[in-house]
Design goal:
Layout lengths: L1 H18 L1 E4 L2 E4 L17 E6 L4 E4 L19 E6 L5 E10 L1 E2 L13 E9 L1 H32 L4 H12 L20 H48 L4 H33 L7 E4 H9 L3 H6 L3 E4 L6 E4 L1 H18 L5 E9 L2 E9 L31 H11 L3 E7 L2 E7 L1
Parallel strand pairs: 1-7, 10-12
Antiparallel strand pairs: 1-2, 3-4, 3-8, 5-6, 6-8, 9-11, 12-13, 13-15, 14-15
Length: 432
Amino acid sequence: MVEQQFDRNLADRMRGLASILFQVGDEVDFAFSQELMPEYEAQEAPAYFELRFADGALLERSGSLGGRPLEMPPDVGAELRYWDAPLPDGRAGRYVARRVEIHHVHPEEGPGRPVVKEVVIAIALGREQVARAERRVLAYCLASCLALVAMIGALSWLAVERGLGPARRLAQTLDAVDVEHLPERFETGPLPSELAPVGEKSRALIARVDAALRRERRTAADIAHELRTPISELVTVAEVALQRNGDVEAARQALGTVRDVSWRMGSSVSTLLKLARLEMGAESFARVPVDVGEVIDEVLRPLRGLARERGLAVENRVNGESRVECDPEVLRIVVSNLMSNALHHADRGSAIECRFARDGAGWSLVVDNAAVELRAEDLEALAQPFWRKDRARADRGHAGLGLALSHALAERTGLRLAFALEAGRFRAVLRG
């Protein structure tokens, strides 16, 4: 809501600058007034604007720019375009730009009429205004909540005036609750009918808080383990290699292990960051031609050693006609997660197949591997972060992020990722 209001403010400023642009004949006049718009000349936390003709020639810029250009995209059109970027003074900023036709003061008719000129207007403001607005909203909400709590407290006191004893006991019980060691069941003791709903709601609230804390601790532990395990492996491999001074073959094996572990650690970090940006809505996606076969080959290169170690035969049946329109980074991460999942969880000595096909509905990429322990009821849980088939026996080097992230990325980019199980073989099907 605050962001939308801030963008409306930028749009109003855009209309204000456009309204003081006039064309008389072939001349363009910009009736800017420093007295009416001092923020564009301020020494501290100024605003910025720049006006350029359609051919890129400068018409006017704010004094706050000090002669410097205001960076803007090259493809600004008639629609308002917003973006975030640092301001010339280093502050976080919000930009808006638009191409406008200049108002002609004396619009002559006929073949000799001057050509109406177009100007690209760009305006930039510091985002500290958004922060201040958010603080005001937060303060208002906090004040409203405090007022509501005070009113409820007063009404409750009037309603339970003759039952202050049970109310005090309930308050003491709540005060004694240790957030770090919440009881499995919160007991309030006998309460009068007026306080019974309060006691029940308190129990329900503590149960929800306990469940949220458990999820948070489990997630934090899984993330920490996901990063700690490869680091520990790197330290161990380095120590062993140092002890075998002069052993070239041992050094080669150590470097290979370091490469594989570093790749896995980088993939884990990339996965975690991508998932965080996705959940915050701070990620944008491109759609360009991508060769699925090349992506699979790129992903498989650092995983060949794992395939040999587990005795897996990887059959890449994706032919040369596999170019699709999608985000290359998203496709690489999804394919990497699907292949890593197959190589780590397929039955030893089995085969993994990659197939690509097109039909009237679009294209599909299938990663197929043996998974005799997987059950049909497990398929829905595969899209949940940090889910594992058996937490006690699962590979602790993998916390179950890959398929969950792949499913989320597919949904956000217009792709579809589905899981199926047939005759003991698990299939991940990516469609576009």
